[in-house]
Amino acid sequence: MSKTVVIDPVTRIEGHAKISIFLDDAGEVSDARFHVVEYRGFEKFCEGRPFTEMAGITARICGICPVSHLLASAKTGDKILAVKIPPAAEKLRRMMNLAQITQSHALSFFHLSSPDFLLGWDSDPAKRNIFGLIAANPDLARAGIRLRQFGQTIIEKLGARKIHAAWTVPGGVRSPLSSEGRQWIVDRLPEAFDTVTLALGLFKGMLDGQLREEIDIFGEFPTLYMGLVGSNGEWEHYNGKLRFTDSQGNIVADGLSEDDYHQFLGEAVEPWSYLKFPYYQPLGYPDGIYRVGPLARLNVCNRIGTENADRELQELRDRSGGFPTSSFLYHYARLIEILACLEKIQELVDDPDILSHRCRARGGVNELNVVGVSEAPRGTLFHHYQVDERGLIEKVNLIIATGQNNLAMNKTVAQIAKHYIHSSEIPEGLLNRVEAGIRCYDPCLSCSTHAVGQMPLHLQLIAADGSLLDEVYR
Amino acid sequence: MKTLVIGYGNTLRSDDGVGFLVAEEVAEWNLPNLRSLAVHQLLPELAAEIAQVEEVFFIDAWEDLGNEHHDRPRLERLQPNASPCSLDHSWSPSVLLHLASTLYHSDPVAYQILIPARQFDFGTSLSAIAKDGMDWSLNVMKAHLTTDREQLPCTKLA
Asked: Can you tell me which residues bind Fe cation (chain A) (predicted)?
């Protein structure tokens, strides 16, 4: 009798989702699906609003990565105004995004994923969390919180509030960094460098030991990778052009503009998920599967452009035989990106422009149909607005990073399930591995409400006739 | 005594944001030894803020569940708790208290005010019941913070 195993919701990711694992008559996994069951509807909500409000509105999609939406929205607003923002404004926006990537990656690595690494997949789930991590390695847990706090405080010092700061506006930013804020960053940077160096050493040691198998099982398959790169092919997070590479590192498409995204990105839908399935249009659906985010950004760039991060990138490539393709290495890529962010923040605090008050350009509504793009912690984020002559939103399309990894997340879940699950008796540690496959991508499925939808982990075994065979809560 | 108020929720989802709005208003009081944070959701670094005070209030929306309907706000004393199920995207107040206690050896007196909430659609207005709950919360906290700050009578110990 064929059966379906449902994991609902997946824990320690942003938002709400469930996983269904389909077993065939022999009890072997035939397929797996990652469902997103929360519907947002922000795009409809934005219609009729002034485009100047879009940054503040879209930032409230998520409490984890509001800065990403702030920046993408502000860049889209720049294009509606058709202005070139002052150099200081670009540097300040860059600093905020670097801080955002730092704090978001720190949450993912130190608080959500490292309990699995340090305590083991099969450890007691009641202890396999941040408190288990504190017991096992209190200094690391404390350092992880301090690193996240470092990124959050930079955002606060720039925008006056940690999240939803209306500091980033079409045309630039509202104010520069203060001298006091600059000094705070200078004083705290050494500790942040120490933390990421410690984490990198620890994680590489585990990849050489207890986590060696996961590289081959957690999302190891060929796909394309997409991300922004600079004019010389360097790592980018704010400006630049889009590049696709394949799983051998060959450049498939380069110099693509976000303005033309509809020519190279398609968006498929499936009846079993609210999350869209973007794909690389020239290869069709689903062959046009591509990945975005930390590993993709490292795979599309020629180099990062800072000394220590470039050395770590080279080691990642050397360890992977030249080109890393396993999604398990997203964790590794996150740590390298934190290092890159810290080095680039260091460069920015040394730049006198960062204190300049010439940080905003002004203009009227000059373009009516524009696309903005930036790199969010989880990957490339597109905002597409159509406005009327008064600047009121007529249509919005948001292509979020998590959606672009949707095909890869489904494939990862299926790969892990097929490797580890061989009957309807599924030990907790194996279920945890399936969930951890999703956590590699650190998906953000919107936490637009917190009061609705909180629920414990729910597992269901469902027979082919729809009858419930087993049900487990934890 | 230093007090921290943390109100959380999404102000674009109607009543979901009532805790956030309470915290914003408390911040306007500019009272000595009082800090008020309006946040989208509870995240681990808040443990470091909690560790710096002797008293903390968490303000949140309280949804109806099944046949359980809430008409009046609830004031609860909170204790640290390391419930593993609370370690998804939404950290609970008790987990943050546990984190503050474990990492920073700090155990402030902690309260939670739960405000009844009925509507979670996109929007920026509060339902009448959430508005009433917001007023009640502000009155209770102002009376407490501007007088002798004795321990508050609570509905229950959570």
From this structure: 65, 447
CA distance A6 to A52: 42
User: Is A301 known to sit in a ligand binding site?
Assistant: no
CB-nearest partner of A141 from B61, B98, B103 = B103
Closest by Cβ to B84, choosing from A126, A145, A451: A126
Q: Are A434 and A7 in contact (CB under 8 A)?
A: yes
Beta strands at B74-78 and B3-8: parallel, antiparallel or unpaired: unpaired
- pLDDT score recorded for residue A36: 65
CB nearest A148 (choices: B44, B82, B84): B44
- For A363-392, write each residue's pLDDT tens digit: 999 999 999 999 999 999 999 999 999 999
Q: How many CB atoms are closer than 10 A to CB A313?
A: 24
On whether the B3-151 domain is CATH 3.40.50.1450, my answer is: yes
A128 vs B117: CB contact, 8 Å cut-off? Answer: no
- Identify all chain B residues contacting A142, using CB atoms and an 8 Å cutoff: 103
Is A65 annotated to bind a ligand? Reply is yes
- Count A/B contacts: CB-CB distance under 8 Å: 106
Look at residue B65 in the predicted model and tell me its pLDDT. 65
Asked if residue A315 belongs to a known ligand binding site, the reply is: no
Q: How far apart, in whole angstroms, are the C-alpha atoms of residue A15 and residue A464?
A: 29
- Phi, psi for A278 (deg, rounded to 5): -65, 150
Domain parsing of chain B, residue ranges:
3-151
Fold topology of A40-423: Cytochrome-c3 Hydrogenase; chain B (1.10.645)
Assess contact for A353 and A176: CB atoms under 8 A: no
| The predicted structure's pLDDT at residue A13 | 41
CA distance A280 to A242: 12
The per-residue pLDDT for A179 is 95
Tens digits of residue pLDDT in B35-79:
999 988 888 889 999 999 999 999 999 987 666 777 889 999 999
pTM: 0.90
Q: Can you point out the beta strands (E) in A333-454?
A: 369-376, 379-387, 393-399
**Distance to chain B for A124, nearest Cα, Å:** 10
Intra-chain end-to-end CA distance of chain A, in Å: 26
CA distance A245 to A210: 30
Burial (Cβ within 10 Å: 0-12, 13-18, ≥19) of residue A213: exposed
Q: Would the CB atoms of B10 and A11 count as touching at under 8 Å?
A: no
Q: From B42, which residue of chain A is nearest by alpha-carbon distance?
A: A63
